[in-house]
Amino acid sequence: MYQDIFPNTAASDILNLLNKSPQCVYAGFDPTADSLHVGNLLVIINLLHWQRGGHDVIALLGGATGHIGDPSGKSTDRIALSSNVIAENIACIKSNLETVFENHKKYIWSEDEGKLKPLRIVNNETWYKEINSIQFVSDIGRNFRMGTMLLKQSVKNRINSEVGGSDQMGNISAGHELISRMMKQDVYGLTLPLVTTEEGDKFGKSAGNALWLDGKKTSPYSLYQYFIRTKDSDVERLLKLFTFYSLGEIKDIMFKHKHHPEQRYPQTCLAEQLTTLVHGEEGLARARQATDAIYSKDVKSLVSLRASDLEQVFDSAPVTKLLLSPGITVLKLGMMANCFPTEGDAMRIIQAGGFYINHQRIKNFNEVITESAHILPNLISLLRVGKRNYYIVKWQT
Predict the structure, then answer these.
(1) Structural domain for 279, as ranges
(2) Contact predicate 389/307, CB 8 Å
(3) Are residues 255 and 184 in the same domain?
(4) What are the pLDDT digits (tens) for 204-247?
(5) Distance between CA 266 and CA 243 in Å, rounded?
(6) Domain co-membership, 24 together with 125
(7) 18, 193, 217, 278: least buried by Cβ within 10 Å?
């Protein structure tokens, strides 16, 4: 699904071109952070569709752009990044892309459908740094006309009101003009739609925070849960945009949902395929384990989790580090972990059955904490007061 095609061309002409012979397509990624995020997924998945169609696919990393900045869609210039930060961001984004393309090949693509051409990842700094300013103005600059640039809406907005548009069509049309003049070849620019929820919220953010593709920044569980929570009104459109299911398969998925909406089957299909794409089958397994740890209320589900997974699942839970020493009671543990404002409150809530250690209700506040009964193999204790107030204790032995 494309938003615009430049120059204005009938979709049938583009399809004929694609079916005629393999084409080369690229998309750019600027190194503004040390990870791509869910908002980049539509572009990445679009590249994967081109790859699946037998075309040559290039991911262009903007190392040079990172030094200069890109004011498109913004009223102020980006903050300049140091060379070291740009190099680190480039390496991380390269790893993101390699991981997604490898997961697609390994877990989603079938070799019976043919062999995929490898993804090429290039950094535009490698050639821009070899061009001096005179050569740049002479070879590149001569192909742009000031009058044409001033007519572009994005440039007009920035000059007149310092409020830029969000589209990239100005950049794409400029690139089209440059390639057409220098290479004498037919080229096309494609833009993808801005994906929003039914309420108009920008897709790919949870509580206002970006969902990163790097598992160290956003856990597989958090990514999985974001898609599991997709509203019924959004899920069919997202299945079409972000998965590799055929339209017939999506129709079947939605048919099942119509008859059993409580099972949230399309949301599960969406979450499972995207978590697999970003984090592989191991990441999906970790996300499922973490989901079980929360909703099954079974201590066995907690045992299977890594300490880092547990912290990310309960990312809003306060973390307390304690030295495991003899004689610590349930009451003392609750107070040391700041679960209660006063000892009186602690004793009352514990006796009433409102305190849990690793999903197990504890009613005796004088019970002594032992490693075998109250501490998980990963040296973590998950405390809960009431239904939703979690606390994590990391034991030092």
Answers:
(1) 219-295
(2) no
(3) no
(4) 766 667 899 999 898 898 899 999 999 999 999 999 999 999 99
(5) 11
(6) yes
(7) 193
